[in-house]
Amino acid sequence: MTMVFGIPIQAFLGQLLVGLINGSFYAMLSLGLAIIFGLLRIINFAHGAQYMLGAFVGYLFLSVTGLGFWPSLILAPLVVGLLGALVERVALRRLYDLDPLYGLLFTFGLALVIEGTFRYYYGASGQPYAPPAALAGGTNLGFMFLPNYRGFIVAASLIVCIATWALIEKTRLGATLRAATENPSLVRAFGINVPFLLTLTYGIGSGLAGLAGILAAPVYQVSPLMGSNIIIVVFAVVVIGGMGSIGGAIATGYLLGLCEGLTKVFYPEASNIVVFVIMAIVLLIRPAGLFGRTA
């Protein structure tokens, strides 16, 4: 049997796969957080609740309306994004000129309301959510057995993250979004609807959280606690990558997922804290984060 560092290669690669899957969710969630903070300067503590909401919207589509997995995968992020846009228009836009603490407190309270509502109706236990029949089973790669749905998660996450990065960094729309947040008066002078762009930005960030949630549902089950269980780690990922750095959020999400997987191989007891240890070290050496801009 082939060994890696004294460990069977199947076990080693299996843990790396688990880390890569976790990293895929970290990357999508931290990407949404980075977009919202980088463009709106809002610390969106409701992001974990929006992740959970995406899973529950998909679950309700599947169980109540009978929609299949694929239509739910498209509709759930749209619903969460529209709800996020509504929150921005009704409440968040009133807080832009205030201390960022107000935005954090509002989104934290919103997260508690959303989580509490779903806990009231569904309890704390998870609801099963089956993957699509087309992705059932797995593929024998020779050195390991790859579950098809988990491979799909990694591929889908990469496509979404790269496409979103390209949209924000490489297109005219992305340039307009950045300009609207940095100098709204100048952008208004060109006849551009700045409030709509801010709403669109928060909606995109919320939709990314919803997409991550419905993708995670078949892996972790649908639970009101799934957002609160992951959001602290995701905030640590964003801090390590650099607050507001979109590329940094993506790269750091995958890297830290792999670090978690490797830690489970060599020192499982530390796997739950390794991200926070790395965060402390990075902040001591580079307070702006690995990819953040220094003042």
Could you characterize what this model shows?
This protein is mostly helical and 295 residues long. It has a single domain (3-129, 143-285), classed as ABC transporter involved in vitamin B12 uptake, BtuC, CATH 1.10.3470. The protein has eleven helices and four strands. It has helices spanning 9-40, 47-65, 69-90, 100-122, 148-170, 172-182, 184-189, 194-220, 226-241, 246-266, 274-285, and strands at residues 3-4, 7-8, 138-140, 145-147. A two-stranded antiparallel ribbon has the order 1-2. The protein has a two-stranded antiparallel ribbon with strand order 3-4. It starts with a strand and ends in a 10-residue tail after the last helix.
State the gist of this model.
The strands form two sheets. The chain has a two-stranded antiparallel sheet with strand order 1-2.
List the helices and strands and how they pair.
Layout: E1 3-4, E2 7-8, H1 9-40, H2 47-65, H3 69-90, H4 100-122, E3 138-140, E4 145-147, H5 148-170, H6 172-182, H7 184-189, H8 194-220, H9 226-241, H10 246-266, H11 274-285
Antiparallel strand pairs: 1-2, 3-4
Helix pairs in contact: 1-5, 1-8, 1-9, 1-10, 2-3, 2-4, 2-8, 2-9, 3-8, 5-6, 6-8, 9-10, 9-11
Name the poorly predicted regions: none
Helix coverage percent: over 70%
Task: Please write the CATH class name.
Answer: Mainly Alpha
The overall pLDDT average reads 87
Largest sheet: 2 strands, antiparallel
- Give the total of beta strands: 4
Structural class: mainly alpha
Distance between the termini: 52 Å
Radius of gyration: 19 Å
CATH topology: ABC transporter involved in vitamin B12 uptake, BtuC
